[in-house]
Design brief:
This protein has 477 residues and is α/β, with parallel strands linked by helices. It contains 16 helices and 18 strands.
């Protein structure tokens, strides 16, 4: 939030405004309708919806009264640099004691930057001034996201006091916390001693924790409460494999684990004797520039895993160790006996066939396959060949961003699998693709159905950096 605080429009301005002549009922309907026109699907829509309350206070006295009386309208706040301290303070006060969804960004979103405008990062004093305003409200946060606000203050001793408070302050309502920062200076300040991080006694409701750039060498996870854990890095924040296993072993209630962008330290030799048992894990996501996909698949003991996402997927390097382990005579049952859903984003057309063959060999029990990337020629060739026959248990195949030219390919693949005795039940297409393709099939196509759905997009919206739509897709054709 970098707008100035809403100005007190004069009574004469409101009195002369044409909108002031409308009835209160109609004014209320217009305001509600405007807010509801912007759902929570994207940050752009959410940002505009948040601003409606501020804009309403400047249009008419009635709308101002309505907006100020609705304290919940002031509970979602995104602050980005350059921020206006007065506006932030006013916004927070208007939320009264309601629970907050608070995001702090030290960079301005590209869509908000004037063309050719170069924005300097916030100064240390800028960050400290903001912390003094928002810190007293942290205890009200339901969702909290802090992006590199502490990184700017490595020369300020005062920052360490705020960090100590952040690690030890009560967050009775906090459900999701996203923390992106470079705290190497703080680690030196603590002499490398690992600190508890939002312990269950301080954050009893915390279920979803996302750490970017904050190494697990410096903290202990709130192990008994979190069910969702996302770990990433930027140019810093690598995690040793041993450290990762040590922390994960304590997270016995974890149901979703996402690992991004080479967060594992490749300089450390891989200890193949270390196994990590996560009995509650249902979803595993390996995303971005990951070079240890195969090692992770081998090291995890997750008997209840139901969904695996690899985006982008590079082929043999991602699945080789896992396939070797699965194929040894020592393995009585598949290492992931309950894995039924697989989402893949093949890195490029040259890798497509290898990715499909490797993944099919590694996970033969998959029932629903989702392809976030599609390369038509390679796609048809791979799925109309019985050498090897891909995913013999698959009944649902989900695709995104396809056009009408793919209709014949879908028919050929459906007919091929029917002839092989492993018929497809559904092709699942995103809404736009469904409209483009469905007209090319007569109703009641005998060997499969077209369904409207988008498993990849539904999953992508839950990831870090979800506003960058193609971030995890690898190369595009």
């Amino acid at each position: 939030m970098n707008d100035t605080s809403d100005k007190e429009a004069g009574h004469s301005q409101w009195k002369g405004s044409p909108i002031s002549k409308l009835s209160p009922e109609l004014l209320t309907h217009i305001l509600d309708f405007t807010r509801n026109e912007f759902p929570d699907d994207t940050e752009h829509d959410k940002d505009f919806r948040r601003r409606i309350a501020t804009m309403a206070t400047q249009v008419s006295r009635f709308w101002r009264d309505v907006a100020l009386d609705h304290h919940l309208w002031w509970t979602e706040l995104t602050i980005y640099h350059p921020w206006n301290i007065e506006a932030v303070d006013t916004y927070l006060k208007r939320s009264q004691q309601c629970l907050l969804d608070l995001r702090v960004l030290t960079t301005t979103p590209l869509r908000k930057r004037p063309r050719g405008y170069t924005l300097l990062p916030p100064s240390e004093d800028d960050c400290l001034d903001l912390l003094k305003i928002i810190f007293p409200h942290f205890h009200r946060c339901r969702f909290l996201e802090l992006n590199e606000i502490f990184r700017r203050m490595e020369t300020h001793k005062e920052v360490f006091g705020y960090l100590d408070q952040l690690l030890s302050a009560p967050f009775p309502h906090l459900e999701r916390f996203t923390f992106a920062d470079d705290l190497r200076a703080y680690r030196a300040y603590t002499n490398g001693v690992k600190r508890p991080f939002l312990s269950p006694s301080l954050a009893p409701s915390l279920r979803d924790l996302r750490l970017i750039g904050y190494s697990l060498d410096a903290i202990h996870l709130p192990s008994s409460t979190i069910t969702t854990l996302h770990l990433s890095k930027r140019t810093y924040g690598e995690i040793s494999y041993a450290n990762l296993v040590e922390e994960l072993q304590t997270c016995q209630n974890l149901t979703e684990l996402a690992i991004y962008n080479d967060v594992l330290n490749l300089l450390e030799s891989y200890p193949d004797y270390i196994r990590c048992r996560l009995p509650s894990l249902k979803t595993l996501l390996l995303l971005g520039n990951m070079d240890m996909v195969s090692e992770l698949l081998v090291s995890l003991d997750t008997p209840n895993l139901e969904e695996l996402v690899v985006a982008p997927a590079a082929g043999l390097p991602d699945f080789q160790l896992y396939r070797e382990m699965k194929d040894t005579s020592r393995v009585v049952q598949p290492p992931f006996p309950n894995l039924r859903r697989l989402i893949l984003a093949p890195k490029g057309p040259t890798e497509f066939t290898e990715v499909m063959e490797c993944a099919s060999g590694a996970f033969p029990l998959i029932e629903q396959l989702t392809l976030a990337n599609l390369y038509p020629g390679e796609f048809v060739s791979a799925f109309t060949s019985n050498n090897p026959l891909l995913f013999p248990k698959m009944v649902d195949l989900a695709l995104t961003d396809v056009d009408a030219t793919i209709a014949d390919a879908l028919y050929s693949i459906g007919a091929f699998r029917l002839a092989e005795g492993i018929p497809l039940r559904n092709f699942i297409l995103d809404s736009d693709s469904f409209r483009r393709v469905s007209g090319h099939f007569s109703e009641g196509t005998p060997h499969f159905q077209l369904q409207d759905g988008n498993p990849w997009e539904d999953r992508r919206k839950t990831l870090l950096d979800k506003d960058v739509k193609d971030l995890y897709l690898g190369r595009r054709q």
